[in-house]
Amino acid sequence: EEARIAPSPRVAKKIVREIAAVPVVKPAQQPLVSLDRRERSRIARGRKQIDARIDLHGMTQARAHRSLIAFLHRAHGDGAALVLVITGKGQPSASGEARGVLRRQLPLWLALPELRSLVLGFDAAHAAHGGDGAFYIRLRRMRDDGSG
């Protein structure tokens, strides 16, 4: 049999430092995708069901963000595949710049880790569902973990 010799403490520390220096590569998450034209058309015509909806219009950013997180977790837990989030178009400002804060924030919020695991993709809603002031969000399917 082969005798093993333990490295000295100094060598062991060096090995640990070298291992710790190796970057951990996380698997790249799929980018959020927009709905295809056919699916958008089916939704607009009422041929594809919107499973749930929430209206964030008029809320502060903080409240809207909390409400969105709770809503998407609840909808995902209920097995929803497609939801509608109404952000509103925002108030026109004198400079024309700071319009639609919630509308601008929504894509950023959807990319955050706490929601990224639930969301497959999103797209602007059809005029019948709020147009520029609303979004369709496609949710991932719930994984069956076998407990149940």
Topology:
Elements: H1 9-21, H2 37-44, E1 52-55, H3 61-77, E2 82-86, H4 101-110, H5 113-116, E3 119-124, E4 134-139
Parallel strand pairs: 1-2
Antiparallel strand pairs: 2-4, 3-4
Summary, kept brief:
With 148 residues, the protein is an alpha+beta fold. It has five helices and four strands.
Give short descriptive properties of this protein:
148 residues; alpha+beta; elongated; four-stranded mixed beta sheet; 14% strand; 5 helices
What would you say this structure looks like, in words?
This protein is of the alpha+beta class. It has 5 helices and 4 strands. The protein has helices at 9-21, 37-44, 61-77, 101-110, 113-116, and strands at 52-55, 82-86, 119-124, 134-139. Strands 1-2-4-3 form a 4-stranded mixed sheet, with helices on one face. Helix 3 (61-77) links the parallel strand 1 and strand 2. The protein starts with 8 loop residues before the first helix and ends in a 9-residue tail after the last strand.
